[in-house]
Design brief:
The protein is mainly beta. The chain contains no helices and eight strands. A four-stranded antiparallel β-sheet has the order 1-2-7-6, with no helix packed on it. It has a four-stranded antiparallel β-sheet with strand order 5-4-3-8, with no helix packed on it.
Length: 107
Amino acid sequence: LEYGTRRNPLASDTALAPTLIPAATGHALTFRYNTDARDRIYSVQRSNHRAPPTRDWQEIYRYDSSTGLSMVSGVTANQNVSVGTITITDPASGPRSFLRLLVQQAQ
């Protein structure tokens, strides 16, 4: 995860961690991504339950750095190449909504 989000695994750099803040509608997740990497897939998933079963997680955003293509499902996304951040604004709201960021190697 550190490579994909441009963090140092040997340093305490929590200020660079992904952030989740309230937005005008729903909430916004901002995370750093490695603009030089051409071998990563960034996926944001949402669930109403944070524990398994894993079938409850829905992919709401995907960015494939090997192709440069993004997939958005029910959210808005802003990719800021100059600072290397992606912000996902999710209009979903409710008493329980969980998001997770997955960084995987592209095939």
